[in-house]
Design a protein that fits this description.
45% helix, mainly alpha, 7% strand, rod-shaped
């Protein structure tokens, strides 16, 4: 990996292309260019047969420069650093700051490439690429460019082994608030890759991480618990707490809905405290229902029958039928 710093002071980690992949890309480009040059030469010989020898040599030289020099420059400029060979090999030409190249970069690379690739059969380019730390040839050095790999194999996510069953819930009382995020990330990376480490090296790393984790929690590692199992159990406890906190904050299923809604679909309303009735009767005067205490707080009541009508839209009473039509509708028929 090569770290490049952009103009915005952002560090990019790119994988520079090495000599074998670059040589294969250049070879594919040359094969295509030579095939096009041969086809155009045959066509021009047939079209310029009536011209003299000097004119035919000038046309052939122009076609050579156009196909083997001008065409690669135009292709790299228009495709932002990807020729046919580089596209097939998953390579791209970028600037030193990681940005796309422009015409001047492609022009410098193509002009110097005539000397170090075409005229010397690639010997100078191979030597410069082997000497350079990032595999750059002379054209890349003078143009300020770098050939990087676009298709990088995706690393497989390591499997996190679960803790032993006899450690389930044993660390539920640990205080994990002081553990930094960097230490959690280190523990997770170790558990994902501990099967790839040497047993002795892995055990030493687990002991060091367990000691750091114990110092942050304030509780020593229990006796008889392997350090790797301790790390896995504490990490699982932390993940379980994060899940419980997420569901408690409404991040689980149904987030954003009414927090007081019943899962069965029943709605709840808040009833205001009723004024206290006289102590002599002990009733509220509405059919003998006991009066609520005056100091009782608001409670949530489930509807017993039909859902309560909205106070903003009371049900309209049906108009009586024994009233005149003019009073019912407001319309007086003509005499």
């Amino acid at each position: 990996m090569s770290e490049l710093v952009t103009g915005e002071a952002v560090a990019l980690e790119l994988r520079p292309a090495r000599l074998p992949s670059r040589a294969l890309a250049v070879l594919l480009d040359l094969v295509v260019a030579v095939a096009v040059y041969v086809a155009l030469t045959i066509a021009l010989i047939a079209a310029t047969a009536s011209l003299d020898d000097a004119a035919q040599v000038a046309v052939s030289l122009g076609v050579f420069v156009l196909v083997l020099v001008g065409a690669p420059i135009a292709v790299e400029t228009l495709s932002h650093g990807r020729s046919l060979g580089k596209l097939a090999c998953g390579l791209r030409v970028v600037r030193d700051d990681g940005g796309p190249i422009r015409f001047r970069h492609a022009l410098v690379r193509g002009g110097i490439g005539v000397i170090e690739i075409l005229m010397t059969f690639g010997v100078i380019a191979c030597i410069a690429s082997l000497v350079s730390a990032r595999g750059r040839r002379l054209g890349d050095v003078f143009a300020g460019t770098l050939v990087v790999r676009e298709r990088v194999p995706v690393a497989r996510t390591g499997f996190l082994p679960p803790p032993p069953p006899w450690l389930a819930g044993r660390f539920s009382a640990l205080d994990l608030s002081a553990v930094p995020d960097g230490l959690w990330l280190t523990v997770r990376q170790y558990l994902a890759r501990m099967q790839q480490l040497d047993p002795q090296v892995g055990w030493a790393m687990a002991e060091r991480l367990a000691s750091d984790l114990a110092s942050q929690t304030g509780t020593p590692v229990p006796q008889g618990v392997p350090p790797a199992a301790y790390l896995a159990a504490v990490l699982q406890e932390r993940q379980a707490r994060e899940v419980r906190r997420a569901f408690a904050n409404g991040a689980g299923p149904g987030a954003g809905s009414n927090p007081y809604a019943d899962p069965s679909g029943a709605t709840y309303r808040t009833s205001s405290p009723q004024p206290a009735a006289p102590a002599a009767t002990g009733q509220d005067g509405l059919g003998g229902r006991p009066a609520a205490p005056q100091s009782a707080p608001a409670v949530f009541e489930a509807p017993t029958g039909q859902p309560p009508a909205s106070p903003a839209a009371p049900p309209a009473a049906s108009p009586p039928t024994d009233r005149p039509a003019a009073e019912r509708t407001g319309f007086v028929p003509p005499a």
